[in-house]
Amino acid sequence: MGVSEILASIDHEIGQLQQARALLSGSAAPVAKKKVGRPRKVAAAVIPAAFKPAKKKKRKLSPEGRKRIADAVKKRWAAQKAKTASPKKAVAAPKKAAVAAPAAKTAKKKRSLSPEGRKRIAEAVKKRWETQKAAAAS
């Protein structure tokens, strides 16, 4: 504990004793003005350890408990999925069969960028950055 912390602690105790004396004697003791702003760090260090709340232990979940929770979540999602999927399957099944055949014929291959196109884009980007650097330098 530093000197400044000890002095702050003593000042705090003196203030409490003066207030207690004023209450016992019945006279109105001058009440110290509360300072505006955030309290000093020293004031927080004055609080005894008995008043500080104890840290809570981290709770651990057993593997069995974890498995029970996982099973419950899977069951819940399965019920949710069955609830939403069952009405759609009955209605959507005939449409899928009718639409599936033409869709297979019109399926497009995923497009890719040719090496020439990639080179043109890279050159354009380099040119753009050069113009921006030149504009920033001037």
Helices and strands, with pairings:
Elements: H1 3-25, H2 41-45, H3 63-105, H4 115-137
Structural write-up:
This protein has 138 residues and is mostly helical. Among the domains are: 3-30 and 38-51, no CATH class; 62-100. Helices cover 68% and strands 0% of the residues. The protein contains four helices and no strands. It has helices spanning 3-25, 41-45, 63-105, 115-137. It is flat. The model has no long low-confidence stretch (mean pLDDT 81).
In percent, how much strand structure appears in the residues? under 5%
* C-alpha geometry: flat
Intertermini distance: 59 Å
Q: For the residues shown, what is the average pLDDT?
A: 81
Number of strands: 0
Number of helices: 4
Main sheet overview: none
Unreliable runs, pLDDT <50, ≥5 residues?
A: none
The class by helix and strand makeup works out as mainly alpha
User: What integer value in Å does the Rg equal?
Assistant: 38 Å
Helix content: 55-70%
Order of helices and strands: HHHH
Short structural description:
This protein has helices spanning 3-25, 41-45, 63-105, 115-137. It is mainly α and 138 residues long.
Key phrases:
single chain, 68% helix, mainly alpha, 138 residues
